[in-house]
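Re: Re: ligand-bound prediction request (bumping)

Still looking for help on this. To restate: I need the protein modeled with heme C bound, output as structure tokens. Inputs repeated here so nobody has to scroll up.
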Amino acid sequence: MSARAILLISIIFAAGSAAADPIGMRAKGGHPEYLFLESLMEPCLPCHGKPKGEPDMLGYAKDGLEAGDLIGLMSVTVAVDD
Ligand code: HEC
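Reply:
Sorry for the wait, this slipped through. Here it is.
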């Protein structure tokens, strides 16, 4: 695994999004792909929080979610070049 790939994964772990541990790993076209659950944190709430349906700062409807709620699944594919 290249130094850049290790750095990328380290950043993701250090970011400490609730998804510090991948929930799965698989080979995708010869490259490792890691899957992370993406949970909401405090900084996400002005746009994804409550009250549901109210416009956020970008004019999108808020989702009515709380910190810790699951919002997505993130896929990280690592390019192995050495
Ligand atoms: C500045 C506002 C803002 C903040 C802060 C924000 N988001 Fe979003 N997010 C959006 C918008 C706008 C969309 C697109 C919504 C749509 O297309 O209906 C979106 C979409 C998403 C999606 C895709 C699913 C969906 O509902 O469309 C995920 C996953 C997501 N955000 C996660 C996060 C997480 C995790 C955080 C905090 C780390 C976060 N967001 C913080 C504005 C924001």
